């Protein structure tokens, strides 16, 4: 049997955000025919938001900025040790969970370059809403238990609009996606604009 040709896909944290946005919009076209597509709409929205927060928070010493405080200390210790010990082993990356990422981006000077005087706009009510989205919808889908359950999806379009607004604010701030070219930024901005429209998933709801 001939060896199968290897297939590789190249990506990074910014491309993952863009891909997640596209996937949310693609899956939205299928929910009227396949209710299971709602799962992938929700997971794609969560992935896009989490990824954008990571891009915004990560400092020039990646992944510090987007990791837990304990993990950040481990990375800083590794950096110091590696100056004199070439055999030093880097720690495993432990990103903050979405609620903690959202708390972090809300703070002034939260960008990796500390260039933003004000934090990303997320009200207390919006934070509670997104935390519930993470704790219930996302976690239930990712860690699916052997049981039947019902999910109200009527709020997903509004979640999508909120996710779009937050990511758009991060995009406009500049730091998180500073390495992306103009064409990439325009494409993401167009997807965010579509996601912010009230009827982006309307065919299922009519």
Describe the structure.
The protein has 206 residues and is mainly α. The protein has one domain. The protein is built from eight helices and no strands. It has helices at residues 13-28, 37-57, 69-82, 98-105, 124-142, 156-173, 182-195, 202-205. Helix 1 (13-28) packs parallel to helix 7 (182-195), helix 2 (37-57) packs across helix 5 and helix 4 packs antiparallel against helix 5 (124-142). The longest helix has 21 residues, at 37-57. The chain is globular, with a radius of gyration of 19 Å. The N and C termini lie far apart (53 Å).
Primary descriptors:
206 residues; mainly alpha; 8 helices; 55% helix
Concise overview:
The protein has helices at 13-28, 37-57, 69-82, 98-105, 124-142, 156-173, 182-195, 202-205. The chain is mainly α and 206 residues long.
Structural topology:
Elements: H1 13-28, H2 37-57, H3 69-82, H4 98-105, H5 124-142, H6 156-173, H7 182-195, H8 202-205
Distance between the termini: 53 Å
Order of helices and strands: HHHHHHHH
Strand residue content: under 5%
Rg, rounded, reads 19 Å
Secondary structural class: mainly alpha
User: Helical segment tally?
Assistant: 8
Helix content: 55-70%
Q: Structurally, how many domains make up the residues?
A: 1
Question: Number of DSSP strands?
Answer: 0
Q: Provide the residue-averaged pLDDT.
A: 92
Shape: globular
Low-pLDDT sequence parts = none
Main sheet attributes: strand count, strand direction, barrel closure: none
